[in-house]
């Protein structure tokens, strides 16, 4: 039995594939900024739909872009201003602690081998300088790329807010699926994305702030810096704020501040943990909450594939894949 092959469809399919690859190559250098624009547009879309009937699509999108830029720029500016001094001071504090307390001698007696802790710690400032500064040409190239990417992000965000509904309508028109399946796909994608943002990102932000209050109470220096670090590490389910609170407790113990160390330990095991449980129960719906294994797989795999935006898109992609499997079984899995 002969199989008829439509040459025109085959040629057009190949043409689409070739230009799809070309577009992917064009987008790849700025993929992080594109993904950030899509995520911001998703979060701000409900506000856009409320403001647009009152002031128009363009002005509403412009106002939201400006507001988002200010909301992001303010904390980033504070961190950028304090980060170099904080990193330098932290490295000096660690070096002084290890030198003054002779931790290397304690490790020698405990392990039975020579551990050159002091020499390793004394090299930390130079290593940090190499990491933060590096080659000047690389620094200039990175700054240029970041500037162009931020400009692209701002313009993409504006047009995604202004014309996002038309883009979604076009995607639905060209997608060869039944209307009910399309609606289920869009609903599933929105539910998964909100689940990640509420149960993964928002909780990490609040956890970092609550844990930062504990550091402030016991007198740990550079609280803003460590709070920002805890917000980031809390995005990794296995790590969490314990990556900072634990060493802080040890630091307080080594400096003979036993009362503060005990308080911070109890505070982390009670207040921080309780806030986490309550917030997840209140903010994240039971039906939309992602399993911790899904978040873990998505975060680590997403960072490897997408870079920093993989912290958000990794769990979204894995969670949406689960939605696709369920929808396929419900609509096309029958015999």
Would you write up a description of this structure?
The protein has 2 domains: 29-174, no CATH class; 178-335. 84% of the residues lie in helices and 0% in strands. The chain contains 13 helices and no strands. By secondary structure, the chain is an all-alpha fold.
Task: Chart the SSEs and their pairings.
Elements: H1 7-27, H2 31-55, H3 57-101, H4 103-111, H5 117-122, H6 124-132, H7 136-174, H8 179-217, H9 223-233, H10 242-254, H11 258-283, H12 292-306, H13 310-332
In brief, what are we looking at here?
This protein is mainly alpha-helical and 335 residues long. Helix content is 84%, strand content 0%. The protein folds into two domains: 29-174, no CATH class; 178-335.
The coarse silhouette is globular
Determine the number of helices (DSSP H or I, runs of at least 4 residues).
13
SSE class: mainly alpha
Mean pLDDT: 76
**Span between termini:** 26 Å
DSSP strand content: under 5%
How many structural domains can be distinguished in the coordinates? Answer: 2
Keyword list:
single chain, 2 domains, 84% helix, mainly alpha, 335 residues
């Amino acid at each position: 039995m002969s199989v008829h092959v439509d040459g025109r469809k085959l040629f057009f399919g190949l043409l689409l594939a070739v230009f799809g690859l070309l577009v992917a190559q064009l987008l790849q250098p700025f993929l992080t900024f594109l993904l950030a624009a899509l995520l911001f547009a998703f979060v701000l879309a409900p506000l856009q739909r409320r403001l647009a009937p009152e002031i128009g699509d363009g002005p509403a999108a412009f106002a939201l872009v400006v507001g988002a830029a200010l909301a992001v720029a303010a904390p980033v500016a504070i961190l950028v201003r304090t980060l170099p001094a904080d990193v330098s001071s932290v490295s000096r504090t660690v070096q002084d602690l290890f030198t003054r307390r002779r931790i290397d001698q304690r490790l020698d007696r405990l392990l039975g081998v020579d551990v050159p802790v002091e020499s390793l710690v004394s090299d930390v400032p130079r290593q940090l300088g190499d990491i933060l500064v590096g080659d000047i040409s690389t620094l200039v190239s990175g700054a240029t790329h970041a500037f162009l990417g931020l400009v692209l992000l701002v313009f993409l965000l504006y047009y995604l807010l202004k014309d996002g509904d038309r883009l979604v309508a076009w995607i639905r028109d060209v997608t060869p699926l039944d209307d009910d399946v399309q609606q289920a796909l869009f609903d599933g994608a929105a539910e998964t994305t909100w689940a990640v943002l509420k149960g993964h990102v928002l909780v990490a932000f609040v956890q970092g702030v609550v844990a930062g209050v504990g550091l402030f109470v016991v007198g740990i220096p550079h609280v803003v810096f460590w709070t920002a670090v805890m917000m980031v590490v809390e995005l990794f389910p296995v790590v969490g704020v314990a990556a900072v609170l634990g060493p802080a407790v040890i630091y307080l113990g080594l400096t003979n501040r036993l009362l503060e160390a005990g308080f911070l330990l109890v505070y982390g095991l009670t207040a921080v943990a309780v806030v986490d449980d309550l917030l997840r129960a209140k903010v994240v719906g039971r039906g939309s909450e992602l399993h911790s294994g899904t978040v873990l797989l998505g975060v680590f795999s997403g960072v490897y594939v997408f870079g920093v935006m993989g912290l958000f898109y990794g769990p979204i992609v894995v969670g949406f894949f689960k939605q696709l499997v369920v929808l396929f079984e419900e609509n096309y899995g029958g015999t």
